[in-house]
Amino acid sequence: MRKKIVKHYKKSVFFQNLTKVFTGNVFAQLILVGISPLLTRVYSPSDFGVYGGYASLLGIFLVISSCAYEKAIPIEKKTVQSYHLILLCLLISTLFFILGIGIYLTVGWSVFNLINLSVSFWLPILFSIGLYAASIQQILNYWSIKKNKFSDLSFSKIYQSSVNVSMQLFFSKLTLSAGVGLVGGDLLGRVVASLYLMSRFAKSKKSKFSWKIMGNQIMKYRKFPLLGTPSLLLNNLSLQLPTLIFISYFGSELSGQFSLAQRTIGMPISMITLSLGQVFYGNASSLVETNRPKLVQNYFKLTMHLTR
What we know:
Order of helices and strands: HHHHHHHHHH
Structural class: mainly alpha
Number of helices: 10
Oligomer: single chain
C-alpha cells in the first residue's frame, strides 16, 4: 500500500515541479558551497562581515520592495490583470530604487547606517542596484510560478550562482574596499538571473496598458501590502537580526566568520523551504478558488511528510 502511495505521489504534477525546482536549487547551492573554501582564502573576515550585513539588509528590504503585490500574481486568473500586476510591482520597485539612490546621493544616508557599519562610497549604490535586481527576480519568479515554468526558476538560480562565484573570484584579484568584491559578484549574479527571467517574460503574450486596470488591481489586492508586508517584514527581521546585531556590536571583522558559518549551515534548510514554498504556492493559487478542500488536504499531507 505504501509503495502505491509513493508511486502515485511521484507521478503527481506537484512532485514533478518540486523535483525541477529542488534540482536547480541543489546545483546552485553546490556551486556556492564548493567555491566557499577558495573564497575564504582570497577574502578577509572583514569582507565576509560586510557581505553578511549586505545580504541581511537585502533580505529585509526585499520583502517590502514591491509591497507584497507580487504574491498576488499567481492568484490572479485573468491574463490582462496579472500582466498589470507585474507592471505595478515593477513600478513600485523602480520608485523604491530611485528613492534609495536619491536619499543616499542627497543626504549621504544609507541602510548601512542602521547597523553602524562603515563602508565605501560605492557599496550603498551597489546595494540599491542589487536590491532592484533581486526585486525584479522575485516578481518574475511569481510570474513563472503562475505559468508553471519551474524549469525557468531552476535555470535562473543556476545562472545566478555561477555568475556570482565566478565574478567574486575575479574581483578578488582587484584592489577593492572591504566587501565590494563579494557584493559585486552577488549583484551581477542577481542581474543575470533577473535578465534571464525578463527575457522569458518578454516572450509571453502582452496586453495594452491601462491605468484604470492597474488602479483596480491596487484596490483589489490592497490587503497584500496592508497585511502581508508587515508580517513578511517581521518574519525576515527575526531571521536577519542576529547577523545585524552581531555586526553592530562587534564590527565587520569579527562578524565575518559568524555570517559565513550561518550561511553555510542554513543552506540545506533554505533549499528545502524555498523549493517547497514556490511549488506549494503555485499549487495553492490554482486550488484556492476551484477546490479549497483539496488545498487543505494537500497542506496537511505536505506537513505530515515534512514532520516524518
